[in-house]
Amino acid sequence: MAQSPTITPTLQYADAKAAIRQLTEAFGFTETALYESEGGVVEHAELAFGNGVVMVSSKGRGGAFDQAMKNAGPFGLFIHVDDVDGHHGRAVEHGVEILMPPTDQDYGARDYMARDLEGNVWSFGSYSPQAAS
Description:
By secondary structure, the chain is of the alpha/beta class. Helices cover 19% and strands 39% of the residues. The protein is built from three helices and eight strands.
């Protein structure tokens, strides 16, 4: 069994269903869990990419976390990908707003930046951060 990620970003969206569509179709995430309440409110969703997971929910659900996040964001996330240019091409094909095209960085990595439907900034690149051992 694969080890669960130690860090799991949690994002809230006014239109969580549209965000999930964009993250899966344009960015290549896989929906692994989706819990909805009446009216199609996304109470909790999990989207996997490699060995990482992003949790997504609808804004305005109530509860302590929803209240704490009321004025938060946008957020920035970095995702390691093997094929930066191919990943970028997929995002462009799906109409994603590109903030920086694939660029070779001074530290040896290649990456690009995109903005999701609600303003979060996603960087996808070849850099692979290493956790402390």
